[in-house]
Amino acid sequence: MDKANPFRGKVLFLFIATSILIFFITGRTPRTYRSIPRPRGPLNTCPSRVSEQTITPLNNTKHLLVSAYMDQRVNGFDIRIIGIFRRDSIQPLYCFFCCAGQLSTTTPTTILQHTDNFGFPFVTTDVMCQIPQNCNATHVTLLTQPDKVREFNQIWLPIRNQKTNEKQEKNLQFNFTVCISNLFGDYNNVLQFAQTLEMYRLLGVNRVVIYNTSCGPELDRLLQTYSQEGFVEMVPWPIDRNLNPSRGWLFSESGGDVHYFGQLTTLNECIYRSMDRSRYVMLNDIDEIIMPYQHNDLMSLMNSLQQQQPNTGVFKIENHIFPKIHFEPSGRFHLPQWNGVPGINILEHVYREDPNRNIYHPYKMIVQPRMVEQTSVHEVLKAFGQQYKVPLDVCRIIHVRVALQGGLTLEQLNVDKRLWDFSNQLIPNVDRELKRAGLLSSEGQS
User: For 94, 297, 315, 439, which has the most beta carbons within 10 A of its beta carbon?
Assistant: First the structure.
């Protein structure tokens, strides 16, 4: 018996307590990373840094990674990593997987630059690779050398859309998702934003995804309320911390590193983000409303179009501009409660330009995301089905903005009051949201 060591029990207690403390106090990781739980088993568990950023620099390159998705629609590939790559620095890359806590072997990649880059140095890029056999892949990263699998400073991307399949389409969470790319420059067009979101909701949109670089203080308050109720999904998009983004669409005119704050990348990312949860995705700007003219809502429109065009995955909708300089003369919808809200009142603008069909005229799109592989702004680059231009009398875009044909007189414009058909519901709904955001006082309401 050990009666000669009265401190042994105390020492043992301190040893156990210290061990427990050390076990629970792990090294602090940066704010934008989280740890992968380390399962019990062999020692080669995955590294602990998983990106929670929307833009992640790739080690030892000039490239940026955005997100990774399971995508088995293209033969020979399982994974699609969406990124923003510098075109003059493309190099061989290798996928490296975390297989339910175990490290995989590396697999070679196929790097697909999107064909639309508008002359900018950086381009939206897909990195395609195959998962090794017997690998239940949960996370992926990219390496510049196939043999450097022990680099523990790698940042991993979670693999999303792992359960997407044809049967699940019947149980999708949403019918319609709108993808809004790139709020920047402290954008603060609050009234038009609220009116457009509420118009979407009346038409049957279930979710609006917004990629936000910067917006004004009032719009930020409005978006916070929409986010809290779940109608809007805000995706931080700090592209200006990584690159010098252009405010224009053409490099020769605007300069910069990447087209229009990375708009092309966000549109593609939003399609894949929505692929396992939304039946349709609408690709349009926040000042554009895809408006049915023969149906009261978008689902009725799409049911009709799908019956007529059963193999179509991309429906192109023509853009029609309503110049904001021309006001409806009666002032019927010049409402006093909105006087203090920054932005445009779309109900006051009923004069519509006819497109000049002698020049290129843009379309926006409603797509079935599972039938799209790559998209640009006005057209899909790669798709698995057919494309269809929807007739103007069936559906068109209401786009209240600066006039495209500024020389037209009122007599040369068309009167289009389609928005007024929804005014009885739209106005109180907009008032409700503005009030919730603290942007509309009770006294100001009519």
Answer: 315
